[in-house]
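Moderator note: this is an archived Q&A kept for reference. The question asked for a predicted structure of one protein chain; the sequence and the answer are reproduced below.
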Amino acid sequence: MTFMIDAESGNAVAPSTATPDWALEIHGLVKHFDEKKAVDGIDLAVPRGSFTGLLGPNGAGKSTTLAMISGLLRPDAGTIRVVGHDVWADPVANKARIGVVPETLLLFERLSGRELLEYVGRLRTLDPEVVEHRAEELLAVLELEEAANKLVVDYSQGMRKKISLAAALLHVPEVLFLDEPFESVDPISVRAIRSVLDQLVQTGATVVFSSHVMATVEALCDHVAIMHEGKLVSVGPMDQVRDGGSLDDAFASAVGAAGKIQREVTFFSPTPS
């Protein structure tokens, strides 16, 4: 089944009536790993300027989908268009339009935070003065000023996530993809990251991120897509997906967990005398 979200009304509509102003369009996306079909023919469209959460149990295909969207993993079938451009027709050009923070961070750890941003700026052929200005602003807003001259190898997990986000934002991407950006991150770092993402979306950019933290998705996102066993099982504006309840309940229902019987742990019961 193909899911579309109308860019003006925010309602899920049929593809024939959808507005073509998409930040992301996926059609028939498939990825196998040996005999396992990690992503099973999904179709999705996300409007520009939206904040979309990608949810699903472990192994649902979220990270694989994000890796294909961002040009890090080639799909076995299907098409992906980011702001109207085919991702795999020109992967290098696509990387100029997007920012990516993967779940597993691979950083140049023998550089300081400031040096890392300067290096990323050179790789993206940005003007050095622009890089310097943007780097200082990002270091400040992400509360990394005091750590700017420390080596990345000495950063905490929260600091590593923040410097990775700064690197992904340095060239002002049209679409930002984040894989579990709040996992293993302390509450203060979460607050700083959320603030920056809010500001980015307010400029008209689009954010798509995967997460297991329902409260964070509810607080940040206006749209949500739920994956299960490689398929999309629910997608639409947040209020539509929740349908008057909580996102947690909607998620459990969508993945078929709501009615499962919970087995009792018998040794918790008092021992008969």
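Archived answer notes: The chain has a mean pLDDT of 85.
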